[in-house]
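Students often ask what a holo structure prediction actually looks like on paper. The answer is less mysterious than it sounds. You provide the chain, you provide the ligand, and the output is a string of discrete structure tokens encoding the 3D arrangement of the protein together with NDP.
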Amino acid sequence: MPRFSGKTVIITGSSNGIGRSAALLFAQEGANVTITGRNSDRLEETRQILLKSGVPEKNINSVVADVTTSSGQDQLINTTLAKFSKIDVLINNAGASIPDATGATGIDQGIDIYQKTLQLNLQSVIEMTKKVKPHLIETKGEIVNISSIAGGSHAVSNFISCFHEPNCFQQPDFIYYSCAKSALDQFTRSSAIDLIKYGIRVNSVSPGVVATGFIGAAGLDNEAAKKFYKHMAAHKECIPAGVAGQPEDIATIILFLADRKLSSYIIGQSIVADGGSTLMMAMQFGDAM
Ligand code: NDP
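The corresponding structure tokens follow.
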């Protein structure tokens, strides 16, 4: 029997990228899935990918919703319960670094950008966790949050200006995004301790550079995004593995953390999957001589 047969999984941010890949893997492994995002065309693409891979229509609940709104969150949960009667797994994956349309960088970015960034990457996770908690208590379920290596102990701002060809790219800035992901890591740890007494496990994945819609959502156009991934893969001081990650590289870890048989003793941890990026020192010796 497929390992997630009979399980119901909500995957936020599954209209694209990592969430889409996770939805496909869960559904192929027998799960009922609630897929969601704001963009109805992209969400329908995800649904079609699942159907074409042989997932039965009855196993998919597709919901266009903004996960930062209370009504959007309720819609996700209520339609899931109406269709599948229970919730076993919550994947808090929706996230983005929201660009400041004025072009401001660093702490010159508006406080409204800070608020929107925190609302999406942190607050919506807290709200979804609170709302799904009673249902996960019933099923002794799992939560997997998608964080980022940007939440680590190093500084993260306009890192694209650190590149060897700084003028090649538009300049997204990750200062508020990295604050949100740091706080999310702390929420993962603390909520894991709070919820394990009910039998609910919470863990997270911290990806490095993964080729998805992320860098476009952060403000780069298609050409610049391609250049970005090419540049990062070509510079082993950025990604020692020499390749940008693919959504499935992260999705397989999400499934591992959602699979109690495989990962039951892991509580409140984050698995870093970044091709080695975080092992590199900021200090590069290339130009020293
Ligand atoms: P994508 O941009 O490809 O996907 C992001 C998903 O989040 C989309 O489905 C998008 O849907 C959804 N989303 C964004 N805002 C909202 C909102 N307000 N309401 C509902 N859904 C929303 O990026 P990734 O797949 O890369 O991102 C997935 C997670 O991985 C994020 O948490 C991101 O921070 C994290 N991550 C990604 C990295 C990377 O290099 N790709 C690196 C580290 C972490 P829609 O637009 O339809 O609303």
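The beta strands are 8-11, 32-37, 60-64, 89-92, 142-146, 201-207, 270-273.
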